[in-house]
Amino acid sequence: MHAYLKSALTLALCVPLLAAQAVDDSLAVIAHPGVPKVDATTLQRLYTGRAIEVAGSPVNVVNLTSGNPVRERFLTQVLKTDNERYIAYWTVRRHVGKGVPPRELRSTAEVIEFVQSTPGAVGYVGSADIKPGMNVVFKP
């Protein structure tokens, strides 16, 4: 009986920890090697087309597709907006000839591949997708 209670207590303590890991909502901004660390203001300027360089070098930012939960977190936590407003912003900006929105990729795997293979590339992924050797330039 004592062993049963010990097992039940251990299980009761571990389940909340597993649940916390399952809803990890952290994200990270990654960049091609050589791109320096950036702050939230710089990212806001890059993802709204008001800046195209970091430390004097051109950058190429990419987004995940609309509806992706990591994109939603990025827009909320870093750009301080939502998807509807972000799309509307770019619709107006494109209409008046002030640029085009960042390229959209379908998955974090595509973002990682693009960033690693494209000089100056910047993208965002869930923190769980970070692997050793990646150039993490910002974490909210």
What can you see in these coordinates?
- There is one protein chain.
- The protein has 140 residues and is an alpha/beta fold.
- The protein has a single domain (26-138), classed as D-Maltodextrin-Binding Protein, domain 2, CATH 3.40.190.
- Helices cover 45% and strands 19% of the residues.
- It has helices at 2-22, 40-47, 69-79, 83-95, 108-117, and strands at residues 27-31, 53-54, 57-58, 60-64, 103-105, 121-126, 135-138.
- The longest helix is centred in the first third of the chain and has 21 residues, at 2-22.
Tertiary shape: globular
Number of helices: 5
Q: In this structure, how is the largest beta sheet organized? A: 5 strands, mixed
- Rounded to an integer in angstroms, the radius of gyration calculated over CA atoms is 19 Å
| Mean pLDDT, all residues | 89
Q: Any idea of the CATH topology?
A: D-Maltodextrin-Binding Protein, domain 2
CATH superfamily: Periplasmic binding protein-like II
- CATH uppermost class: Alpha Beta
Q: Can you give me a brief rundown of this structure?
A:
The protein is 45% helix and 19% strand.
What topology does this entry show?
Elements: H1 2-22, E1 27-31, H2 40-47, E2 53-54, E3 57-58, E4 60-64, H3 69-79, H4 83-95, E5 103-105, H5 108-117, E6 121-126, E7 135-138
Parallel strand pairs: 4-5, 4-6
Antiparallel strand pairs: 1-6, 1-7, 2-3
